[in-house]
Amino acid sequence: MTESTAKRVELSEVKTEAQDKLALSQRDFSIVKSVPVNVEVKLGKIEVSIERLFSLKAGETLEMDKDVNQPIDLVLNGDIIATGNLVAIDGNFGIEIIDLMRES
């Protein structure tokens, strides 16, 4: 069995949440700011059988897994990037952002 030698490792300082917020807002996004992306609003989910799915009729309802008062998810490329409340704006749905997810 060979012996291992321990080596000192230098660790960088951990940023605070306030530093992370500042860093995100100061980033230069000019090179990608006109790139279109698909953003989805996820109200909830439900698991149903194929049989149930094909037996649905107009007027039927499916109950989702979220309470009507729970925040909904704003999804970018399959990842939740924010949560918010569903709102109505001039006859259209909208989302009022209440929390932005932080980078890990």
From TrEMBL:
Residues 32-100 form the Flagellar motor switch protein FliN-like C-terminal domain. InterPro entries: FliN-like_C, FliN/MopA/SpaO, FliN_T3SS_HrcQb, SpoA-like_sf. It holds the Pfam family FliMN_C. Keywords: Cell membrane, Cell projection, Chemotaxis, Cilium, Flagellar rotation, Flagellum, Membrane. It is a peripheral membrane protein. Its main location: membrane. It is found in: Cell membrane. Signal peptide: none annotated. PANTHER family: FLAGELLAR MOTOR SWITCH PROTEIN FLIN (PTHR43484:SF1), PTHR43484. Belongs to the FliN/MopA/SpaO family. This is Flagellar motor switch protein FliN.
